[in-house]
Write a sequence for this structure.
């Protein structure tokens, strides 16, 4: 007796629509976050977090595709005329009533925001993608190690997040060409190709970063917040990209002192300002612990530019030049809550022509990201005055 056999062809592409839509949505979220890094990284919820939990960031106009009931269509159906194509806009809810933005109460709809949940590590990976210590040189002593990830192989199995779309399409075309159907389609498991990666340990020269922070009485809430934000991401960048880079923390008012990381970020403001005290301490620390022949040295200083007298400003220029003679780069960030123009300290630094001196003025929270780019981007970052 011949057994009954049923032959059918199922369109398995429908089963892949959900994961494909989810992957496309996740990619859009990632692109939206990258496009708004300047605003996102200065969020207080991130700076004050413990760095371990996921944080929520607002991303405008993103949502998973789904059907919605339109109250305007209650008296008729919504069929088209057959001439539409993918990507056509068929309408926006509330578009005839305006954007809903204003200072007073009203009945107009607002702009939809999607809250994307992302860990600090994932956000850091996006932020530090093209960052590195500038002018890093080979020194005489044992090198530090930095870790990178390199995709170096393609396999037939792996997580869908590592799917190599180009190779998958090529394998599908080759298989179907052998079957005399040289077009893309009927995707099968045997067509799938996945990227695999290998962690590479790169030897870098010894490096020390000297972080100097103004904690004098003239540093207001905005100045303190911006300074902490910059150094929060700088420290995270150094510890993400480099295994053994050393960080020295210095705070100053009229006197400077070396502190631990916790006190560096938590100390409040008090007293007057004598910027030269921080530079003198930095020079002493370099002399005692970090021989320039063995170490790449990166001093960074953030202040509001309010310093005690022109005499100390002139002394600061001399000390900065001494620091630059031993350093790969000197970074100075000036935080100005109100745009009164360049400070006397900034004007004093404008006479420095050494390319190793880099300055940035920060007038709003969104300027923190361009400042990080200016100091650490491998390719030239955004220009700041």
């Amino acid at each position: 007796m011949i057994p009954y056999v049923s032959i059918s062809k199922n369109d398995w592409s429908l089963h892949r629509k959900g994961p494909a839509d989810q992957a496309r949505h996740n990619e859009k979220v990632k692109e939206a976050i990258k496009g708004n890094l300047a605003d996102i990284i200065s969020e207080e919820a991130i700076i004050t977090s413990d760095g371990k939990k996921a944080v929520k960031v607002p991303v405008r106009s993103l949502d998973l595709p789904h059907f919605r009931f339109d109250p305007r269509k209650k008296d008729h159906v919504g069929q088209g005329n057959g001439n539409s194509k993918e990507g056509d806009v068929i309408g926006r809810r509330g578009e005839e009533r305006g954007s809903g933005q204003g200072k007073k109460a009203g009945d107009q709809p607002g702009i939809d925001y999607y809250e994307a949940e992302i860990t600090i590590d994932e956000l850091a990976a996006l932020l530090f993608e093209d960052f590195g210590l500038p002018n890093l040189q080979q020194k005489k002593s044992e090198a530090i190690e930095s870790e990178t990830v390199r995709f170096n192989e393609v396999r037939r199995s792996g997580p869908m997040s590592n799917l190599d779309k180009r190779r998958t399409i090529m394998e599908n075309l080759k298989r179907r060409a052998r079957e005399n159907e040289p077009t893309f389609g009927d995707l099968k498991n045997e067509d799938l190709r996945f990227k695999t990666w290998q962690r590479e340990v790169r030897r870098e020269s010894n490096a020390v970063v000297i972080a100097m922070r103004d904690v004098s009485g003239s540093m207001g809430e905005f100045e303190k917040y911006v300074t902490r934000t910059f150094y929060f991401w700088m420290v995270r960048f150094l510890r993400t990209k480099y295994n053994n880079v050393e960080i020295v923390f210095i705070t100053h008012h009229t006197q400077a002192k070396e502190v631990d990381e916790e006190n560096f970020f938590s100390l409040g403001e008090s007293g007057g300002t004598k910027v030269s005290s921080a530079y003198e301490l930095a020079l002493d620390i370099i002399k005692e612990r970090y021989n320039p022949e063995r170490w790449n040295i990166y001093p960074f200083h953030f202040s509001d530019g309010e310093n005690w007298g022109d005499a100390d400003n002139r002394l600061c220029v001399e000390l900065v030049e001494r620091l630059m003679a031993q350093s790969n780069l000197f970074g100075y960030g000036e935080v100005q809550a109100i745009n009164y123009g360049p400070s006397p300290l900034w004007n004093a630094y404008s006479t420095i022509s050494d390319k190793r001196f880099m300055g940035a003025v920060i007038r709003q929270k969104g300027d923190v990201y361009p400042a990080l780019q200016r100091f650490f981007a491998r390719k030239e970052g955004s220009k700041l005055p």
Observations:
- The beta strands are 54-60, 113-119, 144-155, 194-204, 207-214, 246-252, 256-259, 296-303, 330-335, 357-362.
- The mean pLDDT is 78.
